[in-house]
Structure formats: structure tokens, C-alpha cells
Amino acid sequence: MRYRKLGRYGLKVSEISLGSWLTYGGSYGKERAQACIRKAYDLGINYFDTANVYGAGQTYPGASEELLGDILQEFPRSSYVLATKAFWPVGDGPNDRGLSRKHIIEQCNASLKRLKTDYVDIFYCHRYDPETPVDETLRALDDLVRQGKVLYVGVSEWSAAQIAEGVHTTKHLNLNPIAVNQPIYNMLDRYIEDEVMPLCSKEGIGLAVFSPLAQGVLTGKYKKGQEIPKDSRAADKSAGKSISRYLNDDILTKVEKLEAIASDHGMALSQLALAWILTHPEISSVIIGASKPEQIEENVQAAGKILDESTMEEIKKILNE
Fold first, then answer.
1. For this structure, is 54 an active site residue?
2. Catalytic: which of 28, 41, 47, 54?
3. Pick the CATH number of 3-216+268-305 from 3.20.20.210, 3.20.20.100, 3.30.700.30, 3.30.499.10
4. pLDDT by residue (tens digit) across 76-86?
5. Torsion angle defined by CA atoms of residues 216, 221, 223 and 228, in that order, rounded to the nearest 10 degrees
6. Domain residues of the chain, as ranges?
7. How many of the other CB atoms lie within 10 Å of CB of 165?
8. pTM above 0.90, yes or no
């Protein structure tokens, strides 16, 4: 495993990290989740990502955090980086959502209890909250940092304008800065390249990207003209909606061509897709999801893989078609 700094900050995270959206605490079962987390740790992954709402689709909010907290007790706390988030609803009350001071403080404390730890390394604003002033949100997070409950402040899926607003606010009020952004990024979804990535690079904000394999599409398991595999994410009613936008002939044709490039270089398509993301120096870590330890073993091999200039040009041509 190789490690990169979180933007301009001193924290070092593994190039490949493990997330728990749609998996741990949900449909894959405790034993499978435990096996995946242990395998990830053994292979050098030191960044584990979760959220207060993960697991809610299949069980209840906080299920993922509880499971992760149980397993990570096996390892020294100083040996891994732990991240969680808040924003999405966790109940029916008017204050059970968003980024108000009340919700952030309550959810951070609840997450720490479920994770069985005194602090999280990164606490993300899971989305931007238009109903709460940014200074209220960032002051609350600053207080959590000063209390030692949070080490680094993060945002997820904020636009460039929203990130810029947050950066300005932290500087103006002398608050702890936004250290990391967690957007979606993969070969098929590259919106951050236009504004978000340059802004984060300029401000020294790390990028820990999620859905690097486009929810499994960039593994090559979905074929044009063929039925969706019964054991795949797309076949899962709770997850299928978010993946359906990738399942069209134009995208699947690109995937076929990318798979041919990967084969020519002796790689799995997933490894090519992850290695391509890691060619961008702005990226601190790529957050994978896995339902089997074997998937983690395959994916971590992308760390350190070099894609030469001609390969990058081939990929660029396919992606821009």
C-alpha cells in the first residue's frame, strides 16, 4: 500500500480506502463485513469511511457505525483514520437533519458512541445545507475540533461555490479549515474536473473520492445486451436506482473498450479504473466498497500502478467519445 497526504495537511491516508455505503451494517451480513474490514487492514488500508445514516436502507441509522466500531476495536486506534458524516435525516423531527449546531453536535456524539471511540479523524458535512448559515455549521465543527472529538473538517458533494464560501468563512472567522472534500469521481462521472478539483488543489483541500467504480459498472460485470446479474448491486432494489444511470448502451460500449485496454496491460478493469484516478495528484484517497475480501485484494493492487502516456491517451479518447 502507498499513502498520500490529505491535501496540504500532515495526515497520511492509504491510496485505497474502504467505505461502507450500501454494504456494512446493511445487506451483506456481519461476518462478511468483518472479513472485509480485517482484510483491508491487513493489506495496509488505514482509512475507513462511514456515516451516521449508512445501514438505514436495510436496518437502521447507525448500523454501519456500530459494526465498524466493533471490528476496529481489534486494532490500535492510532493505526487507522476513521471518518463519519452528518446531514441526512435520522428521524422524523424537524431537527433530525441538516447542519445546524444542534444536529451536528448531537450526531457527532451519537456517532462516537456507536463507533466506540473518543474521536473521529474526519467529520464530514454529508451535503450542503441551504437552511443553515455556513458560519453556524463551521463554528460547530470548530468547537468539536477544539474539544478533541474531531481532528479534521470535511465536506461531501459541495459545489465549487459552496466550498469557496466555506473556505472564506473559515479564514474570516479564524476557524479550523476545511481539510478534505469527498465527491463522486470515476471514469464515467468527472464533473469535479472543471471547478471542484482546481479549487481544492488551490486551497490545499484533499480529495477522497467515492464510487470510483461507478457502483460496479467499471468492473465489467454489466454487459450490453445481457441481463443484469442476479447477485449484482443493480439487481438490489435498494441500490438499483442510483446505478441505473450508468446502464445504457453508450456507457457500456465505453466500458467494453476500457476492459480491452485493461486486458492488454494484464489488469482487471477495476484496477485500471482505480489506477487512472490515482494518476491525478489532487486525489488523496479512493474509497472503494467491497462485499468480499477478494474484491479488496484485487482493488489494492491498483495502488502504485503506472499508466504510461500512450495508455492515458487511449483512455482519454474513449472517455471523450
1. yes
2. 54
3. 3.20.20.100
4. 999 999 999 99
5. -80
6. 3-216+268-305
7. 16
8. yes
